[in-house]
Specification:
By secondary structure, this protein is mainly beta. It has 5 helices and 34 strands. It has one domain: TonB-dependent receptor, beta-barrel domain (Maltoporin, Chain A, Beta Barrel).
Length: about 625
């Protein structure tokens, strides 16, 4: 029945519809590979979300938007939504976040240890565009881009916008943005607050699983001449979260809001800034230099355990553009240090890359791309007592791609990509903190082939991929020792479609099929061989209907579904309980009157009890209650 329902949904979006006087669906210009290119003309698979998409969705946080509106499988990190798990192309919800390179305005967010990227510090109100490149990105972004990359670009605001909203469970989401712009100067600022009181019952200390985030951002651009631009940006984010402990099956069945023990309290305080300059030396040659820095503190207050992080990166890019070809050459140097009371551990890198695109005159409507990256990663472990240990890895990535336009509406593309993941520093230690061993980097070769079909009424994308992996990194369950899977692979199909059904109704869908298999692994005497990778659902679907009921009133209906998967620790595929389906239905309503917008949204309309299944008797409730929010936004 489920298969028939899914087939029917896919067919409804695929079959031709009656012609209508429709709005044009833009072929958006993106730059994930360093070159500005229409999304239908890229040599790689892409997924784009704009500020308009975010506003229409009614999502109040980046977590909600990505979980409900993108093809990414997003789940809280065992209860922590501030640093969620990100699963792209079957790398699993437990380790997938380390296989996606994430950046905001060019600044990397990936950590050097096992903590996922802090997404709570990015207000959705400040996002201009999200670009997801799949099976590509390793040449420009290097480490972690094994499944792909996510680039987030923030707004250059002019004018003033104020938004206030509140909801059940103590939800508050407020922001203020303001900006001015002239030919020489652009200045914008953003302040945002997001919080809730908690969804579960009070723990044994009287606290709920509460969350609060306060973020401020300032962007500045100065153009002293036509050829020179100076840019600077600074962000401060303070986050405090308490998250739940796992429930037994009996506790979950009785009430998913059950409190067990003391909730983990963790705070994240981060200060990010960047400064750079762009120089157009000639009409064809441009130079960009940027310095990035982040100072962050992560404090596990419950366990009296804190880490301080220092991240710096310097980047120099030279771009040369001719009529039929363009070249991007880059140098990158990054230093990352984690400091604790017992040790200092660093992971530093030096890299250079060369990326090219060319359009031969003898082969009209065809784009070729070739890129190569060389990176050296150095590790150093300095315990307060004991021997200093060192390790270095020399790694390479490359990408070869082609895009050919068959006719005005249809393009075909293919690319072959090699990528790598240098282990995070926690992979070298046991669960109790003793040094284990340096483990091997993961290496991935991915082949993508697909098509884009764009008209004024329809934007359709189809991609098939196969990824061959050596040394995929994982934690052996029960033993708590990090090591490598000898061989594994992933294959899948990705479908995207946006259709302007009538001038008033827009429908869209995302469907992914992913099969992630362990081919061979000597751990547990080969018991993992030919098993499915746990935590990786085979099917996922996101559907939206956006209805402009009246010129000032619009409604967005969203349905998100992911199929069952093996529990996080079930590498032998023999647990009695699987990761359950993830299902959520969401509604958002916007009413505009002059310069004001009134909005309301409901998440998880049918109160589905979604979970993260770790063991047979270890369950984390996630997105398991119905929430609603109402608010007002005004533009001046």
């Amino acid at each position: 029945m489920k298969k028939q329902l899914l087939t029917g949904i896919l067919a409804a979006f695929w079959l031709p519809h009656a012609a209508a006087e429709a709005l044009k669906l833009d072929d958006i210009t993106i730059k994930s590979n360093g070159f500005e290119r229409k999304e239908s003309e890229t040599t790689y698979a892409s997924e784009i979300h704009t500020a308009e998409d975010i506003e229409a969705s009614g999502a109040s946080t980046l977590y909600d938007f990505l979980a409900q509106q993108s093809s990414l499988n997003i789940l809280s990190n065992t209860g922590n939504k501030a640093t969620p798990g990100v699963n792209l192309r079957g790398f699993g919800n437990e380790n997938g976040y380390q296989n996606v390179a994430i950046s905001i305005d060019g600044q990397r967010l990936n950590n050097i240890d096992i903590q996922p990227a802090l997404l709570a510090g990015i207000p959705v109100s400040n996002i201009e565009r999200i670009e997801i490149s799949k099976g590509s990105g390793s040449v420009i972004y290097g480490d972690n881009a094994t499944a792909g990359s996510i680039q987030i670009y923030t707004k250059n605001k002019t004018g003033v916008t104020v938004s206030l909203s509140a909801g059940n469970y103590g939800q508050l989401n407020n922001y203020l943005t303001a900006g001015i712009a002239s030919e020489q100067v652009e200045l914008s600022a953003n302040a945002a607050h997001d919080s809730y009181d908690g969804y579960a019952k009070k723990d044994n200390t009287g606290h709920r699983d509460s969350f609060s985030s306060d973020t401020q951002n300032v962007k500045f651009k100065l153009k002293p001449t036509d050829r020179v631009q100076i840019r600077a940006q600074a962000t401060n984010s303070e986050n405090d979260i308490r998250y739940v402990n796992p429930l037994s099956k009996a506790q979950f069945d009785a009430n998913p809001r059950t409190a067990v023990g003391t909730y983990t309290q963790q705070t994240f305080n981060t200060k990010q800034w960047q400064i750079g300059a762009d120089f157009n030396a000639t009409d064809k040659l441009s130079i960009a230099a940027t310095h990035y820095r982040e100072d962050k503190r992560s404090d596990f207050i419950t366990f009296n355990n804190a880490f301080n992080y220092d991240y710096t990166m310097d980047e120099l890019k030279l771009r040369y553009v001719e009529t039929q070809w363009q070249v991007l050459y880059g140098l990158q140097k990054g230093d990352s240090l984690r400091k604790s009371s017992s040790s200092n551990t660093s992971k530093n890198f030096n890299a250079w890359f060369l990326n090219t695109e060319f359009h031969p005159q003898w082969l009209e409507n065809t784009t070729f791309s070739v890129g190569y990256r060389r990176e050296k990663v150095d590790y150093e472990y300095q315990p307060t007592a004991g021997t200093t240990l060192n390790q270095d890895n020399r790694l390479e990535a490359w990408d070869i791609g082609v895009n050919h336009r068959i006719n005005p509406t249809t393009t075909l593309f293919a690319n072959l990509n090699q990528s790598f993941q240098a282990p995070d520093i926690d992979r070298f230690f046991t669960f109790l903190g003793a040094f284990n061993q340096f483990i091997s980097p993961a290496k991935v070769r991915t082949f993508n082939v697909g098509t884009n079909f764009f008209t004024t009424q329809n934007k359709f994308k189809l991609t098939a991929f196969y990824a061959d992996l050596d040394n995929e990194i994982y934690l052996v369950p029960g033993i708590f020792r990090n090591t490598n899977l000898d061989r594994s692979h992933k294959l899948g199909i990705e479908v995207q479609d946006v259709y302007q059904l009538t001038p008033e109704i827009n429908v869209s869908m995302l469907y992914n099929f992913v099969k992630a298999k362990i081919d061979s692994e000597n751990e547990q005497n080969g018991a993992y061989n030919n098993k499915d990778l746990p935590g990786a659902p085979r099917h996922s679907f996101v559907g939206n209907v956006h209805w402009k009921i009246a010129p000032t009133l619009d409604l967005n209906f969203n349905q998100t579904w992911r199929s069952t998967a093996y529990a996080f620790n079930d590498f032998e595929n023999n647990f009695s309980r699987k990761q359950a389906q993830y299902i959520t239905t969401n509604l958002a309503l916007n009413y505009q009157y002059q310069n004001a917008t009134l909005f309301a949204s409901i998440n998880n309309l049918f109160d589905r009890e979604n979970t993260i299944q770790v063991e047979d008797n270890a369950i984390y409730p996630v997105d398991f209650v119905r929430t609603f929010r109402v608010g007002m936004r005004a533009d001046f």
